[in-house]
Amino acid sequence: MDKWMLCVILLWVPLASGASLNGEGRALLAFKERVEVDPYGALSNWDEAADNPCLWFGVECSDDEKVVVLKLNDLCLKGTLTPDIGKLIDVRSIFLHNNSFSGVIPGEIGRLQKLELLDLGCNNLSGPLPSELENILSLQVLVLRKNRFAYSQSPELYDPNDEELLSSNRQLVKRRLLQINDNPPPSDANGLPPPGPQTDLNSNSNRAPSPSPSSTSPSNTKSSSPSAVPSPSAPGEIPETHEVPSKKWVIFLTVGVLLIVVALSAAYVLRYLNQKSVTIMPWTTGLSGQLQKAFVTAGVPSLRRLELETACEQFSNIIGSLSNCSLYKGTLSSGVEIAVTSTIVTSAVEWSEEYEAHFKNQISTLSKVNHKNFMNLLGYCEEEEPFTRMMVFEYAPNGTLFEHLHIKEAEQLDWAARMRITMGIAYCLEHMEQLNPPLVLGNLSSSSIYLTEDYAAKISHLEFWNEDKEARAESESSNQESIVYKFGILLLEIISGRLPFSEDDGLLVLWASSYLNRKRPLMDMVDRTLNSVREEDITELADVIVSCIDAAPEKRPTMAQVAGRMRMITAIQSEEASPRLSPLWWAELEIISQ
């Protein structure tokens, strides 16, 4: 009898533990089963014996313990997407950006009727987009760039400046999905695309090349644009022609001139009235002594939503997404470009007092950074109708450091450019370490480093708050040591030109260990595309890396010590690592303040 009871207990325990996990937990476990590579062990605490998936890494829940956010970006996960993702019926945001997911997007994703943001950018997804996406009426942002989806060569569909699909207009999404799915790329007898340039909806390879960071000499590459060649008619057909009578042209031109005159007159009157009624002030970002004083004492201005809406083309120019906000690019009337982050919360009901406290604290903290190698805060927007919480930052036009190190279409960085970028990062981190209290970045990676027009580094801290509760619980001291460690890994990535993780080599720090401990020739660790790299420099930089990634955090140097050693090695002063912009550029950056 005892043996029978023991058998029953042994059978009942796993059944009971599995039964305690709800449907969302089982759906997440199905997601985990499709993940073939998890180099950082991000999903290691996704345990089927657990009864609360809200405690799992990357999972955020509402007060009633419904999964509302799945945040697994930048983790080098490899696998396919499970159809069970459609069972997360309360999820509002899914971030799978910058991983290695392949295969198709499952049609079951159309069941997520509360989904507002879906970021699948920078993966290896392919096939046609599921038509079920158009049924998600709540979807506001859909990011698909840098994948391998079926594409169309229709010029009406592809815009080299539009890398993301926006679902704020349902008909636009529906039309685009139909065009993508109904126009597969032409193929040869083997089913492969024909040789030659192709148009890819999810690639930015058709962008005009940026100026070279290493040379100012003219480029040998030639750029071309589609020529206006009429489509050949079928045999026996007469091509269509369209003629407009000359009288109509006269009417069109007259009306056009009148409209332009009226618009210019209205703009002049509005500008005059605004100048009479409110003060116009520059967004000071610390590019001179006077500006630095004004920035610290006056803080950043509160801006009107209408101004930002106009600058960002009705918030249609989205350039990215983060865990708790969307990122837009804007252009002021003077031509100055800005970056605007907006919370994904769209209702005051969903905006808690804790969120508001974090938002105000972020503004207060970032307004005090004031460093030339930091993506400085220029202003913020806080309105109740429509509900708005936004922050406005400087814009760096040359993309991220990650793109220039790892994407072949991007402009390659020579050794001098890489060292200047590295020193800009080191000086900025040293400055943030010395603030009271120190500013600790939640994320420091090549993806968070943006490059200016002259390829100087700009560290970004664009998120509204750090949602990693464990990171917030750490002491300031251990956080600083963590930043030093991350800088060491970043320096290793810059020198080697290798990803932090790859299928062939695994974790970069493990791959480099045999070079750093001199078991292999140290120079073999250097990116092979680089020239004129001195061995003595690599030897000294390797010693810096080893000290930064020391297994004992208390033995790691401070960022001030790291910056000092790096300055001795590179001979690059802080002024040389800063963006070379005119000190009068801020005069163009005027905006009417509330």
From TrEMBL:
What ranges does the record give for the region Disordered, renumbered to this chain? 180-240
Against Gene3D superfamilies, the record matches this protein to: Phosphorylase Kinase, domain 1 (3.30.200.20), Ribonuclease Inhibitor (3.80.10.10), Transferase(Phosphotransferase) domain 1 (1.10.510.10)
Q: Which keywords has UniProt assigned to this entry?
A: Leucine-rich repeat, Membrane, Repeat, Signal, Transmembrane, Transmembrane helix
Mind telling me what this protein is named? Protein kinase domain-containing protein
* Major site of localization recorded for this protein: membrane
Please state the span of the N-terminal signal peptide per the UniProt entry. 1-18
- Spell out the PROSITE patterns in the cross-references: PROTEIN_KINASE_DOM
Organism of origin:
Musa balbisiana
What positions does the domain Protein kinase occupy? Answer: 313-569
Q: Which InterPro entries match?
A: Kinase-like_dom_sf (IPR011009), Leu-rich_rpt (IPR001611), LRR_dom_sf (IPR032675), LRR_N_plant-typ (IPR013210), Prot_kinase_dom (IPR000719), Ser-Thr/Tyr_kinase_cat_dom (IPR001245)
The UniProt GO MF terms for this protein read: ATP binding; protein kinase activity
